[in-house]
Amino acid sequence: MTDASNSKASLGRAIHAITGKWGWFVALGVGELILGGIASANLMAASLASVLVIGATMLAAGVFQIVHAFSVRGLRGFLLWLLAGIVYGAAGAVMLYNPILASFTLSLAACAFLAAAGLIRIWAGFHMRPAAGWRWIVAAGVLTVGVSVMLFATWPAIGLWLLGAMLVVDLIFQGWGFIAFGLTLRSRASRHPAQPATV
């Protein structure tokens, strides 16, 4: 019981410590909403920007993996690390060299992952029977598969805007989430100005 009480008190102190920073969370949320609005004005540019960021990240990660491979050259996994770094870095370089082709490829991969996620939800829903709510999980899976089928049907036309649309949706939802979190912290601060928050 002592450990549980200590961890509860620690969590309460951590919440109290960030309560005074509520304005930063609101500002971050507003900033993300503004960026989402800017990105929504040109989904193609947002898609290409996403591809360039992903490509640069993959190229950097590939270089780090190659450097890591040479740092463990005496170990058994040297060739595996080296090959993984070369493949990862080459994929990033291709994305930077031809971001339009990469946008088409990544949008197709996103459709495939969406379809897989929907099928997994359907499977999980049926395996939850007879627990209450299993039909909702199946329905969510069917809806996800339906969206993926619709996106597959419109590919490759969606290739130039899908990633941008996903970025816009992510920025907007994150923005509202940070704003709501910040305002909740502000409300907590006004109710408990002196003592640490308890959970």
Structural summary, described in words:
With 199 residues, this protein is an all-alpha fold. 83% of the residues lie in helices and 0% in strands. The chain contains seven helices and no strands. Helix 1 (2-19) packs across helix 7. The protein is extended, with a radius of gyration of 23 Å. The two termini are 15 Å apart. The model has no long low-confidence stretch (mean pLDDT 78).
Keywords:
0% strand, 7 helices, mainly alpha, 199 residues
Kindly summarize this structure in a few lines.
The chain has 199 residues and is mostly helical. 83% of the residues lie in helices and 0% in strands.
Spell out the blueprint of helices and strands:
Elements: H1 2-19, H2 22-40, H3 43-71, H4 78-97, H5 99-127, H6 134-154, H7 162-191
Q: In total, how many beta strands? A: 0
> Mean of residue pLDDT?
78
Uncertain ranges: none
Structural classification: mainly alpha
Q: Helix segment count?
A: 7
C-alpha Rg, in Å? 23 Å
Helix content: over 70%
Strand-residue fraction? under 5%
Biggest sheet statistics: none
End-to-end span in angstroms?
A: 15 Å
Shape category: extended
Q: Give helix and strand order, one letter per element, not per position.
A: HHHHHHH
